[in-house]
Amino acid sequence: MGLAAREDFSEREFPMSDANFVQIKNIAYSLTGINLSNHKKNMVYGRLTRRLRRLSMNDFNQYCELISQEKCEEHVEFVNAITTNLTSFFRESHHFEYLANSVLPELYVKNKTTKKIRIWSAGCSTGEEPYSIAMVVKSLAMFNAWDVKILATDLDSSVVDRAKIGVYPTERAEAIEARYRQYLSVNSRENVVRVKDPVRARITFKNLNLLSSWPMKGPFDIIFCRNVVIYFDAETQRKLFDRYADILRSDGHLFIGHSESLHNITKRFTSLGRTIYQRVS
Ligand SMILES: C[S@@+](CC[C@H](N)C(=O)[O-])C[C@H]1O[C@@H](n2cnc3c(N)ncnc32)[C@H](O)[C@@H]1O
Known about the structure:
α2 (18-32) runs parallel beside α4 and α6 crosses α7 (128-139). This protein is of the alpha/beta class. Strands 6-2-1-7-8-10-9 form a seven-stranded mixed β-sheet. A three-stranded antiparallel β-sheet has the order 3-5-4. α11 (234-247) links the parallel β7 and β8. The chain has two domains: 9-82, Chemotaxis Receptor Methyltransferase Cher, domain 1, CATH 1.10.155.10; 93-279, 3-Layer(aba) Sandwich (Rossmann fold), CATH 3.40.50. The chain is built from eleven helices and ten strands. Bound molecules: S-adenosylmethionine. Residues 32-34, 83-87, 91, 123, 125, 129, 154-156, 159, 209-211, 226-228, 257 line the site of S-adenosylmethionine.
């Protein structure tokens, strides 16, 4: 048990009992699949106290009572508060190299009749991942006349709203290679960059819970689902990865996060190394 787990939360500005935390954990799990471990208690406390203040509540009993209701508007804010949205442009850069040098050139041959490619960034957070994918596509002139579309989804409605805007502090773009930086316009006065329209045009952003039913039919050629399932238990991961296999083309590619693995989870993909997988069944 970590220090944070032993800390007494009953003496804080907004008292939170162990029973409150268990209730919050259970509701978070059923709404999102996210397993909040005990060492997340401090983080959860910090994020949810903002909601208590906003709702003029005095303690977590009141808040737990509210979110225990089967259907309530607060679920959106609750979910937005507990998700972890850390991301960056070209995060795990070897994925984008593999996309540019192997997967997309292969699809250029395989899909030459339809001239169509479908990519899904599942758990896209504030948009850096799908914009990085779109910049790679844009950099390959052979796809200029192709119908290449990227669906970018996240459970957290606030990050989806920010992703749609496509404007970032300049320092977030500093590590981007020069060949991709041309797809950003720089506003030095406001110290921000904006993703240019031809790159944005390939992406559709939507609010979607991966555990719910999916409105799209597929098939997708490629799915990026990176650093999302890390807080899911094995059974939730297995169900999700099997659904990814179902919605991918028969030899489609799946990219997952650096600390994630399909080993002992599903046999429907084969590993191509470095957290890149290809569907086999
Ligand atoms: C750490 S971010 C990863 C962002 C990006 N994929 C990357 O690797 O940089 C994880 C994202 O997964 C989203 N997420 C968590 N549970 C989800 C669920 N059940 N359905 C959809 N998105 C979820 C979170 O809202 C968060 O934005």
